[in-house]
Amino acid sequence: MNDLAEFHASISDLFPQPKTKADWEQYRLSEEQLDFFNEEGYLADVKLLNEDQIEALKNALDEVMDPTHPLHSLFHEFHSNESGDPNKVLFHSLGHWRIHPAFHDVIWNPAFRMAASQLLGDRAVRFWHDQLFCKPAHHGGNVAWHQDYSYWTRTIEMQHLTCWCGLDDANEENGCLQYVPRSHRWGLLEKPALAGEMDGLMQMMSEEQKANFKPVPIPLKAGHGAFHHPLLVHGSFANFSDRSRKAFVLNVFADGTVSDTDEPLLEGIPAIKKGLKLEGKFFPLIFNPSEI
After folding, report:
1. Which cofactor does it need (predicted)?
2. What distance in Å separates the CA atoms of residue 243 and residue 175, rounded to the nearest whole number?
3. What totals of helices (H) and strands (E) does the chain contain, helices first?
4. Which residues, in sequence order, are CB contacts of 247 under 8 Å at separation 6+?
5. How far apart are CA 48 and CA 54, in angstroms?
């Protein structure tokens, strides 16, 4: 079985690819959507998947969550429960695009790629890494308030973007994503434990930031995504409902981002020396607007 990171294009027919410039237009975000993102730091409710794609990815999720999977060693991280509380379960992983064709090909989803490029200022886009966040019914754990870039300072400059997409319907009852609008203007804060206490980041904020800390829930139907700025404060509360909350995350950056460390950027991959561009097998170019 192959490491699917070897393949820098779709390897199945799960996400049909546009053939012409006109074909791409259906995926283009509006100026109103782009303005909202720039003002608030996020854009929610972007439809990314149809029912067949949701089902394929849920089946893939069941497969890759099995620690006996023959390609399990390709994960960069795999946490059956990243929560320190055994009564709250948060499954979290990085690297499943290397393991299953459905998670590999979702990176080449045209709706995702077009939106990512536009939100990065019509730039060429490279893949950074993927994540899974799964909260089981009744005892699903929280994700603490945080800024994504606080975990990514090993890459510069900051020109990153995150896309969260649900495989289950998500609302406040089962622990949906929550954003703090306009917090992307606060600058870089300290890095909390990702599955730690919800108030961890609050202790690192100024009084002004605390006064403007006004989270809004982001309920989303399965197959719909939310994009956010790398400094936007976000998190999600525990799931005590009767429904699971499964989601995947795609993280990208604008082409030209470089390494700021001589250490490996992700567990299990060769280091890229400090100052060199992120490219190659593990950081493929997934969209170049000049080529459509």
Report:
1. Fe(2+)
2. 10
3. 6, 14
4. 132, 133, 134, 164, 165, 166, 167, 168, 170, 177
5. 10
Q: What is the CA radius of gyration of the chain?
A: 18
Q: pTM surpassing 0.90?
A: yes
pLDDT in tens, 98-132: 999 999 999 999 999 999 999 999 999 999 999 99
Q: What is the pLDDT of residue 109?
A: 98
CA distance 7 to 133: 25
Query: What are the structural domains of the chain?
Result: 41-286 (2.60.120.620)
Q: Which two tokens stand for residue 153?
A: 């300072």
Half-sphere exposure of 65 (CA within 13 A, CB side): 19
Structure confidence at residue 171 (pLDDT): 97
**Inter-CA distances, 210 with 40, 129, 147, 151, 194, Å:** 17, 31, 15, 21, 19
Contact by Cβ (8 Å): 217, 173:
no
